[in-house]
Amino acid sequence: MNKLVGSAAEAVADIGPGSTVAVGGFGLCGIPITLIGALYDAGVGDLRAVSNNCGVDDAGLGQLLMDHRISRMTSSYVGENKEFARQFLSGELEVELCPQGTLAERLRAGGCGIPAFYTLAGVGTQVADGGLPWRYDPEGGIAVASPAKEVRSFGGRDYVLEEGIVTHFALVRAAKGDRHGNLVFHESARNFNPLCAMAGQITIAEVEELAEPGELLPENVHTPGIFVQRVVGPVGTEGKRIERRTVRPREGS
Fold first, then answer.
1. What pLDDT score does 253 carry?
2. Are 175 and 207 in contact (CB under 8 A)?
3. Are residues 40 and 105 in the same domain?
4. Are 158 and 174 part of one and the same domain?
5. Do 33 and 132 fall into the same domain?
6. 20 and 144 in one domain?
7. Is residue 31 located within the same domain as residue 132?
8. Other C-beta atoms lying within 10 Å of the C-beta of residue 168
9. Of 19, 61, 221, 250, which is most buried by a Cβ count within 10 Å?
10. Distance of CA 197 to CAs 34, 69, 114, 124, Å?
11. What average pLDDT does the segment 60-69 reach?
12. What CA–CA distance (Å, rounded) separates 121 from 106?
């Protein structure tokens, strides 16, 4: 039951070229910066990442992207990363864009052993009909396009069939965790982390604070240890960044 490993480098050592990796976080909120850094230092390339977005140009998964370590992304929101857009439009990166709620449910379904499900999202669009560019060629033409998906009618409404996602590995970050792998996420950092943790065949969690087994109340645990195979920590809070800081003047200042 002791899932604690000695270092982040040891935890990611068996992630190799061609691996599919689900990565928690949204923007820079709740991203596993320690594990991403260890993966970067390991020099691994040809990674197939599944994450809501790809960080920013110089942080999060953006680190790996800048060094051309990611060959394919399954994402929902990609608007904050200019290098992502450049690589996609130039044909250097394959991208499967997915509605955000659908992406969340695909990860959850994969973690629950559900191979596919029907949803309203995307019906009547290229999400269902196919033809979305996945990869461009150097001349700007479409080299790889999304396939058409099955559509069925239930109760007089059409629904599109979406497949669950299961990845070789998942990387997540939690505010607290114990050596059994039970995890607690802090507020909005909960975002995609529990879903990615479910979807990975081998889930690696970095925890800011390491608790002893029994210290975390069962009703407060967001991800039970059954979904987690390796724990790294405590990693503390150093290095956490705010993606976009917005403030207003104080009254009377």
1. 67
2. yes
3. yes
4. no
5. no
6. no
7. no
8. 17
9. 61
10. 16, 22, 15, 32
11. 94
12. 12
Measuring CA to CA, which residue among 63, 98, 92, 58 is closest to residue 78? 98
Contact 179, 160 (CB under 8 A): no
Query: pLDDT tens-digit profile of 159-203?
Result: 999 999 999 999 999 999 999 999 999 999 999 999 999 999 999
Are residues 77 and 168 part of one domain? yes
Cis preceding linkage at 234, omega within 30: yes
How do residues 107-151 score in pLDDT, each as one tens digit?
Answer: 999 999 999 999 999 999 999 999 999 999 989 999 999 999 999
DSSP assignments along the chain, one per residue: ---B-S-HHHHTTT--TT-EEEE--BTTBT--HHHHHHHHHHT--SEEEE-S---BTTBTHHHHHHTT-EEEEEES--TT-HHHHHHHHTTSSEEEE--HHHHHHHHHHHHHT--EEEESTTTTSHHHH---EEEE-TTSSEEEEPPP--EEEETTEEEEEEE---EEEEEEEEEEEETT--EE--GGGGTTHHHHHHHEEEEEEEEEEEEPTT-S-GGG-SB-GGG-SEEE----STT---SS----PPTT-
The number of distinct structural domains making up the chain is: 2
Whether 79 shows a pLDDT value over 80: the answer reads no
Q: Tell me whether residue 251 is in a domain.
A: no
Do 74 and 171 reside in the same domain of the chain? yes
- What contacts 96, CB < 8 A, 6 or more positions away? 72, 73, 74, 75, 134, 146
User: 69 in a domain, yes or no?
Assistant: yes
Looking at the structure, tell me whether residues 91 and 34 fall in a common domain.
Answer: yes
CB distance 8 to 35 below 8 Å: yes
Q: Domain containing 159: what range? A: 117-163
